[in-house]
Amino acid sequence: MDWWRDAACAHEDPELFFPVAVTGAALRDQQARAKAVCRRCPVIHPCLSWALQATGAQGVWGGTCEEERRGLRRGGVQGESALGVTGSA
Ligand code: SF4
Known about the structure:
- With 89 residues, this protein is mostly helical.
- It has one domain.
- Helices cover 44% and strands 0% of the residues.
- The chain is built from 4 helices and no strands.
- The radius of gyration is 13 Å and the shape is globular.
- The structure holds iron/sulfur cluster (SF4).
- Keywords: 4Fe-4S, Cytoplasm, Disulfide bond, DNA-binding, Iron, Iron-sulfur, Metal-binding, Transcription, Transcription regulation.
- InterPro entries: 4FE4S_WBL, Whib.
């Protein structure tokens, strides 16, 4: 996980990425704020790849919540492909 060194969330409150609420507007709001950090993160691709392989990963990783990652796994979509990246950098 060398990519972690460049994680945008390293400078954020970790609790933002692990919502306490399980449903409703509070959950959606917290997830949206965490995903906004992910969208400007330079390591979103390897982060999502890791999270898709780590089936026990909770919270927001790689710009996705747990439910979204379950959907991506069911669809057979892997990390960078899920983000629309087809080649390596
Ligand atoms: S993509 Fe999101 S969760 Fe992953 S390292 Fe970047 S900011 Fe953190």
